[in-house]
Amino acid sequence: MRLLYLVLVVVMLAGCSKKENEDIHPKFVPGEIILGAEASTTLVQLFALANSYKLPIKQVAPCLYTTTVSKDSADYVKNIVMSKAYGNTPEWPMFVRAQGTGLQVGGRFLAMPLSAQQDWLATVRQLRLQEVSITKSCTVQVPVGEELAYVARLQATPGLAFVQPNHYVQITLH
After folding, report:
1. What is the average pLDDT across 77-88?
2. Is residue 82 within 8 Å of residue 93, measured between CB atoms?
3. Rounded CA gap, 76 and 74, in Å?
4. CB 140 within 8 A of CB 33
5. What is the DSSP string of 126-161?
6. Which residue, of 44, 87, 145, 151, has the fewest CB within 10 Å?
7. What pTM was computed for the model?
8. To the nearest 5 percent, what fractions of the chain are helix, strand and coil?
9. What does the pLDDT read at residue 12?
């Protein structure tokens, strides 16, 4: 019986040990970093930050707005919002829902070049949207091999809670 316990312990420890050839450094997506915005940082400010460093925006989420446009206009608002290709994917489409006497609009944005940024900001004005103060993250592209340099450069930027490489997550099922 003791031998059985010993064998089980050895097998468990061997299964949990780090492989000799595993890299001890975390892996991240080449050419991407994540900017974690404080709740008080607006989408306009995130756009300005990324644009000031000429960093293409790959994704921003979540984005949440309210509007005093009447609930009766929900279909009108939904048609405009759903026409934005940068904000609608089958996995995570934009939403428009009733809230109080007005509406709430939200979702995430993908691939936001300057033209898409300008289009969204025009939509915000058109629909009289007010941004809700929430924390959001923005994935931006940086030159491959310079991820950690950009993290260090942007770490102390006002309005950002964190800056980090876009780490891979590995899930192992046993």
Report:
1. 94
2. yes
3. 5
4. yes
5. HTTEEE----EEEEEE--TT-HHHHHHHHTT-TTEE
6. 145
7. 0.80
8. 35, 30, 35
9. 43
